[in-house]
Specification:
The structure is a single chain. The protein is about 65% helix and about 10% strand. It has about 170 residues and is an alpha+beta fold. A five-stranded antiparallel sheet has the order 4-3-2-1-5. The chain is elongated and about 60 Å long. The mean pLDDT is about 90.
C-alpha cells in the first residue's frame, strides 16, 4: 500500500512539474535560434520582446496564459487537498474532491493547448514584426509537455476518483 501511495504522490508531483515547465519555459514554437512562448518572442537568446497589448491576438495569448496558470495552481491545490484528505477521510471513502480539482486542472491545460494550436498560425501572420524570417518551425518541447501534462493530470484525476482510503 505504501508503494501505491508513493507512486501516486510522485505521479502528481511530476504532473505539477510538467505544468510549471510548460508554462514558464520559452519553447512553445521554435525554429533554429527563434523561440516563442506564452510570455515573449525571442529572435535569438539575447533579443526577446515581451508580449504586450500592442500584440495582435493579445487576448488570445492572455487566455492561454491564464488557463495554463490556472491549471498549475489547480494541480498544486489538488495535491494539498489530497494530503489533507489522506489524514481526514474515513476508511473506505474516495478522494472525490481531489479528483474534481485535478480534472479541472486537466481541462484548463487542454483548453490552453487547444487555443494555442488553433490560433498559432493567425498569431504569426498578424505579428509580422515579431515573426519575420520565420517561415517554418515546429511546436517546441514546452507545448509538447503541456499535452503530456494534460494526459498526466487526466490519469491522476481518474486515479483519485477510483482510489479509496485504506489503513
Amino acid at each position: 500500500m505504501l508503494v501505491l501511495l508513493a507512486f501516486i504522490i510522485i505521479f502528481h508531483i511530476t504532473s505539477a512539474a510538467l505544468l510549471f515547465i510548460a508554462t514558464i519555459d520559452n519553447a512553445w514554437w521554435v525554429e533554429g535560434e527563434f523561440f516563442a512562448d506564452l510570455w515573449s518572442v525571442c529572435s535569438n537568446t539575447t533579443n526577446c520582446t515581451a508580449i504586450s497589448d500592442t500584440y495582435a491576438y493579445y487576448t488570445t495569448m492572455q487566455a492561454v496564459q491564464a488557463t495554463m496558470i490556472l491549471s498549475t495552481i489547480l494541480c498544486c491545490i489538488a495535491f494539498l487537498v489530497f494530503l489533507l484528505q489522506l489524514f481526514r477521510l474515513k476508511q473506505g471513502e474516495r478522494f472525490v474532491l481531489t479528483s474534481i480539482i485535478q480534472l479541472m486542472a486537466c481541462l484548463c491545460v487542454m483548453i490552453a493547448a487547444s487555443i494555442y494550436t488553433d490560433r498559432r498560425e493567425d498569431i504569426h501572420k498578424e505579428n509580422p514584426e515579431l515573426y519575420q524570417g520565420v517561415s517554418g518551425g515546429t511546436y517546441g518541447y514546452s507545448f509538447i509537455l503541456a499535452w503530456v501534462a494534460f494526459a498526466f493530470t487526466f490519469l491522476s484525476g481518474l486515479m483519485y476518483l477510483i482510489l479509496r482510503k485504506r489503513k
